[in-house]
């Protein structure tokens, strides 16, 4: 009979008992936890600095849709389903839920941040966030974001040009929202048919041509430099149009100059059209002129007499007593007989 290694057997038995005890305790802990109840809910909403389009009340209404969650067994709460329900809200970018050791339910929500409000050509409007997601309007409040007008479409599925335009709107909106000065200075931005942007400032009665959404930092930098010089020298109301879409230059049109040039061009076009119409309406007509015939009754002019009269000098002095000088009458030449007869005949 072999000797039994009791020491080894005891060690194995001890480890077996420890394992079984661990499993039992773990199962008991799970069972105990399943019978625990939700004590409270803590909600934290991030991603919104001033505008909260979904609040704690909205979240509590959603998680309590199937009964009050506080006091419910933890095993009866499906956290994954609640997270999915929260993410269905258009204003929720992400949602996470978990319980801590004190049976406190933590709900962390990341709210979408609008960067622009867009008005389409048909008059409807919507928000758009930094991820190019269109968001509905809220009944609670209106977000203080840049306003864009004349967006070409309000369809659920945008065409490729409209999608590209929406991306440019987001790009320009994010740039303005990130700068407090431009947030205060930009009143409205119009979308042009050539896919460019035209800005209406809050201070100043002019239109600012931005062009496309490229190189925004340099464009707004040139505009800011122009503002500093113009405000100090002439004031902003002197200009009716400012163009910053070209590199290394700012084109400013003084008030009234553009209208004068436009009126001059229109006047030239009008005069050209009037001249053209006058030729068509009143064409030249042929004019026949009859030759003049000499009058046989008139006496021929004696050129020698006229020349002698013009060369004659009057040496008499003018005197008041003699009265007005009257021109002398030219005696008519008596007609001489054609033949003279002598006495000898």
Please provide a brief summary of the model:
This protein is of the alpha/beta class.
Descriptive notes:
The protein is an alpha/beta fold. The protein has eight helices and twelve strands. Among the domains are: 40-111, membrane protein fhac (Ubiquitin-like (UB roll)), CATH 3.10.20; 114-258, Rossmann fold (3-Layer(aba) Sandwich), CATH 3.40.50. It has helices at 6-34, 56-63, 79-87, 160-177, 180-185, 216-233, 257-281, 303-311; strands at residues 40-46, 92-99, 104-111, 114-120, 125-129, 134-135, 147-151, 186-191, 197-201, 207-211, 239-243, 251-254. The strands form two sheets. It has a nine-stranded mixed beta sheet with strand order 6-5-4-7-8-9-10-11-12.
Unreliable parts = 260-268, 274-325, 329-345
Give, in order, the helices and strands.
HEHHEEEEEEHHEEEHEEHH
Widest β-sheet, arrangement of strands: 6-5-4-7-8-9-10-11-12
CATH topology of the domain at 114-258: Rossmann fold
Percent helix range = 25-40%
* Strand residues, percent: 15-25%
Helix/strand/pairing category? alpha/beta
CATH level-1 class of the domain at 114-258: Alpha Beta
Radius of gyration: 52 Å
Q: Termini, distance in Å?
A: 222 Å
Taking the sheet with the most strands, its summary is: 9 strands, mixed
- Number of beta strands: 12
């Amino acid at each position: 009979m072999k000797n039994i290694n009791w020491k080894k057997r005891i060690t194995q038995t001890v480890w077996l008992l420890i394992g079984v005890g661990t499993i039992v305790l773990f199962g008991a802990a799970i069972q105990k936890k399943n019978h625990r109840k939700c004590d409270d809910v803590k909600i934290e909403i991030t991603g919104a600095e001033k505008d909260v389009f979904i609040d704690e009340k909205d979240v509590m209404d959603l998680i309590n849709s199937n009964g009050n969650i506080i006091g419910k067994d933890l095993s009866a709460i499906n956290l994954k389903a609640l997270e999915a329900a929260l993410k269905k809200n258009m204003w929720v970018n992400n949602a996470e839920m978990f319980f801590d050791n004190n049976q406190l339910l933590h709900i962390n929500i990341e709210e979408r941040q609008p960067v622009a409000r867009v008005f389409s050509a048909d008059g409807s409007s919507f928000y758009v966030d930094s991820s190019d997601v269109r968001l509905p309007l809220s009944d609670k409040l209106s977000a203080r974001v840049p306003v864009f007008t004349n967006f070409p479409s309000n369809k659920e599925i945008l065409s490729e040009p409209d999608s590209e335009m929406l991306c440019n709107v987001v790009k320009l909106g994010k740039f303005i929202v990130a700068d407090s000065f431009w947030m205060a200075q930009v009143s409205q931005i119009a979308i042009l048919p050539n896919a460019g942007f035209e800005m209406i400032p809050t201070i100043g009665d002019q239109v600012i041509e931005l062009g496309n959404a490229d190189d925004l930092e340099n464009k707004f930098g040139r505009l800011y430099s122009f503002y500093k010089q113009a405000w100090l020298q002439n004031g902003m109301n002197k200009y009716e149009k400012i163009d910053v879409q070209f590199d290394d230059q700012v084109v400013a049109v003084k008030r009234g100059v553009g209208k004068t040039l436009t009126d001059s061009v229109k006047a030239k076009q009008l005069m050209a059209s009037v001249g053209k119409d006058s030729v068509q309406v009143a064409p030249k007509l042929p004019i026949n002129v009859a030759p003049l015939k000499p009058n046989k009754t008139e006496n021929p002019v004696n050129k020698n007499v006229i020349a002698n009269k013009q060369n004659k000098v009057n040496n008499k002095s003018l005197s008041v007593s003699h009265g007005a000088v009257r021109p002398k009458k030219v005696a008519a030449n008596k007609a001489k007989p054609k033949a003279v007869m002598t006495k000898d005949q």
